Amino acid sequence: MQFQVMNSPFSQEQVELLNRLVPTLTQTQQIWLSGYFTATQNSNTTLHTTTEVTTVISTDSPVAISREVTVLFGSQTGNSQGLAKALSIKLEQLGFQVTLSSMSDFKSNTLKKVQNLLIVASTHGEGTPPDNAIPFYEFLHSKRAPQLEDLQFSVLALGDSSYEFYCQTGKDFDKRLEELGGKRLSPRVDCDLDYDDSAAEWIENVLANLNKTLESTGVVQGTTLNGTEIVAEQSAYSRTVPFKAEVLENLNLNGRGSDRETRHLELSLEGSNFQYEPGDCVGIYPENSLALVESLIEKMGWNSEELVSVNKKGEARSLRDALLNNFEITVLTKPLLEQTAKLSSNKALEELVAPGNEVELRNYLDGRDLLDLVQDFSPWKGTVQEFVSILRKMPPRLYSIASSSKARPDEVHLTIRTVQYESHGRERYGVCSTQCAERLEPGEQLSMYIHHNPNFKLPTNSVTPIIMIGPGTGVAPFRAFLEEREESSAEGKAWLFYGDQHLLTDFLYQLDFQRWVKDGVLTRMDVAFSRDTDKKVYVQHRMLEKSRELYQWLEDGASVYICGDEKHMAHDVHNTLITILEQEGGKSTEEAVAYLNDMQQQKRYQRDVY
């Protein structure tokens, strides 16, 4: 770009200076200084010679343009929050004024003033919003929601395509904002468990479209934004670059005679520079069963040593290694069947994925894997590469951390229950849990990373009482909580509700918890072993038995934590808390629900459910 004196407000000398300077500027420098002048046009600010910035100056009169961007996240386990934070940092680097907030902390009555809104939202369970998205979600879908004709927005939706209501929360936000008059800055992107590439593409599109908006006002000209850079973490290892952790210990926690197997896994973090807190998780990249891989290759008549590309970078591996380590083959999803229908000559598969057959398709997906699919709908066409290219990348399996880094430096402990069941005439095995139970010895390695979960954390004030409800493997993070509180000499009371099937064989970490009760780290413990009595007794029954004391703990400011099964246990425990508030607090159902909602807002009611 060359400036001319006749169409600019600059002198000849200024034009010559600009024409020498402008071609040397980076895109980031141009954007930054544009924002700088916009923010300081009415002040007497001087740029020092040490400030390494400049811009392309508009030849038009100043135009009112908002460089303010609001980024809201709804996150259960931290993925959406991490992406929202990375996006916000990038926006700030490019000169935007960013408001980053959890949906639960966002003041809904300020929404009308927002011009640029970016939403990153996960879908929890069967199509429901994550806990910290519920207040904003309900507001937006209520009659109190304002018209938003001045809003431009974009939504990044996270989900799991193996669920029927894939990315439903993000879809709902996208639809509702449009209904309220908002205009899409960039189309919604739906991300599966392997979200890195899709999320990076959405970020790049959002930033590019924000740039176009600025260009159209004359504030910025001739620049392009690239939004795929991610701020480096303290550790060199991450979700995309996992650490090879040595297995220090692998024990079965269940006693002889139990029909369950729960592994206690101890991993070395030495050399990883990983930092974690109680409430965080470990993500493990597992290995598929060799027997399943070989059966699949044999059924398809493939050559196990044929090289196939396993990512967009073109990295090649043998088919056998790729199916073992890179691709998910134990779970079927609707998108996968829609893609494989193009590679099959079987009309039955084409009919199965056709519109109107949703119930039949859902029933087929349940409990079947890729071997079932290739057996049921042969013959197949296309190359090996075409087939593996439509497979979902191996997603990590997340497990709550069962240790405190203060108590166990350079170690992390996990609690993993082995999954085995029969379905459609074949034995099925959990990919990661079976690998840990049957094929992982001390001295071997696991590919892992630390997954931070800011939504499941101990109170910042160690005097605050805590109530922990975690049957089965849901007790894992509470072992970490108590180790942490023991190491830090926390003064607050602690109450654990724990349950499983049998006292003699299924009391996980029994000696640890009994020692903590004896030492006063754990104030009280109530247990429920459902198969030891004629009538099944669960943790919610123990809560009702102690309802008066539990209510008093709540009134005294206790924080409540729930970990475990979302579909049944967490739902039952939530309803039990409402019942206790009604009975002991004399509240109506509406008041009890509002009480728990207020606890969530204060971060006194946190759930890690799955």
Automatic annotation (TrEMBL):
<dbReference type="InterPro" id="IPR003097">
    <property type="entry name" value="CysJ-like_FAD-binding"/>
</dbReference>
<keyword id="KW-0288">FMN</keyword>
<dbReference type="InterPro" id="IPR017938">
    <property type="entry name" value="Riboflavin_synthase-like_b-brl"/>
</dbReference>
<dbReference type="InterPro" id="IPR029039">
    <property type="entry name" value="Flavoprotein-like_sf"/>
</dbReference>
<protein>
    <submittedName>
        <fullName>Sulfite reductase (NADPH) alpha subunit</fullName>
    </submittedName>
</protein>
<keyword id="KW-0521">NADP</keyword>
<dbReference type="Pfam" id="PF00258">
    <property type="entry name" value="Flavodoxin_1"/>
</dbReference>
<feature type="domain" description="FAD-binding FR-type">
    <location>
        <begin position="240"/>
        <end position="459"/>
    </location>
</feature>
<dbReference type="Pfam" id="PF00175">
    <property type="entry name" value="NAD_binding_1"/>
</dbReference>
<dbReference type="Pfam" id="PF00667">
    <property type="entry name" value="FAD_binding_1"/>
</dbReference>
<dbReference type="InterPro" id="IPR023173">
    <property type="entry name" value="NADPH_Cyt_P450_Rdtase_alpha"/>
</dbReference>
<keyword id="KW-0560">Oxidoreductase</keyword>
<keyword id="KW-0274">FAD</keyword>
<dbReference type="InterPro" id="IPR001433">
    <property type="entry name" value="OxRdtase_FAD/NAD-bd"/>
</dbReference>
<keyword id="KW-0249">Electron transport</keyword>
<keyword id="KW-0028">Amino-acid biosynthesis</keyword>
<keyword id="KW-0198">Cysteine biosynthesis</keyword>
<dbReference type="InterPro" id="IPR001094">
    <property type="entry name" value="Flavdoxin-like"/>
</dbReference>
<dbReference type="InterPro" id="IPR001709">
    <property type="entry name" value="Flavoprot_Pyr_Nucl_cyt_Rdtase"/>
</dbReference>
<dbReference type="InterPro" id="IPR017927">
    <property type="entry name" value="FAD-bd_FR_type"/>
</dbReference>
<keyword id="KW-0813">Transport</keyword>
<dbReference type="InterPro" id="IPR010199">
    <property type="entry name" value="CysJ"/>
</dbReference>
<dbReference type="InterPro" id="IPR008254">
    <property type="entry name" value="Flavodoxin/NO_synth"/>
</dbReference>
<feature type="domain" description="Flavodoxin-like">
    <location>
        <begin position="69"/>
        <end position="207"/>
    </location>
</feature>
<keyword id="KW-0285">Flavoprotein</keyword>
<dbReference type="InterPro" id="IPR039261">
    <property type="entry name" value="FNR_nucleotide-bd"/>
</dbReference>
